[in-house]
Amino acid sequence: MRSLLWYLWIAPYAVLAIVLAVFLRRGLKKQLPLFFSYIVFLIFYCLASVAADRVVVFYHTHPSYIYRWVLVCGLGISALLSFGVIYELVNQTILLGSPLARSLRPVLRGSAAVLVLLTAVASGRMAASGGIEGVMKIFQLLDFSSSVLQVGLLLVLFLFSRMLRISWRGLPVGIALGLGISGCAELSATGLLPVLGPGYYPMIDVLRLGAFHVCVLVWLGYLIFPEQGPKFKGTPPQESDLESWNQELQKMVR
Length: 254
Prior knowledge:
Layout: H1 2-25, H2 33-58, H3 63-92, H4 101-129, H5 133-164, H6 171-196, H7 201-224, H8 239-253
Helix pairs in contact: 1-2, 1-7, 2-3, 3-4, 3-5, 4-5, 5-6, 6-7
C-alpha cells in the first residue's frame, strides 16, 4: 500500500509537468492564465511536500509541525486557485456568447467576494491564535466548496451542453471534466472519512490520489489531441458554381 501511495503521490505531478510543457508549447498561457498558475502551483506544492516529508524522516525536532503547515498552506492556496480556474472555465464555456452571461456574472463576482472575505478571516485567525487547527478547518471548507463547484460545473456541462452548444472536444471542457472527476473523489472521501475511521485513511488517499491521476491524464489527452477545426474535403467550389447556386436559391425564395 505504501508503494502505491508513493506512486500516486509522485506520478500525477510528473504527468502534470508534461501537461505544463505541452500547455506552454501550444501558447495557451494567455488564453487560460489562471489554469496556468494553478498547475504551476501544484507542481511547486508537490516539491514542497516531498521536501517536508524528507525533513520528517531525517530530523526529529518539530518536523511534523513544518510538514503540517506545508499541507495546510498548500490546501488553502490550491483551493483558492481552483475557484479562479472554475471562474475562468465558466467564462470560456457557459458565458462565452451566451445570453446567461449578464445574469450569472454578478453571481460569480459575489462568490469571489465571499472567497476574499473567508481568506481574510483565515488570515486574521492565523495572526490572532497562531494555531494551525482553526486555519485548517477554514481551508478544508474552501477545499470542500471548490469540489462542490467542480462537480456542479461538470453536471451543468453534461445537462446543458447541447442547449449551450458546447463542444466536448474543447480544452476548457476537458479541464472541467478532469476537475469534475477529482471533485467527485474529494466529496466521496469527505463522506467516507467519518464513517470508516482512521484505519481506512490509506484506502481513501488511494481514491483521492487515483482520481487526481485520472484528472491530469484527461488534461494531457485534451492537450495532445486538440479539437480540430472543420475541414473542407474535395475541390473547393469555383466562383461560377457559387453564382449559379445563388441564382437557384433566389428562385426558390421567390
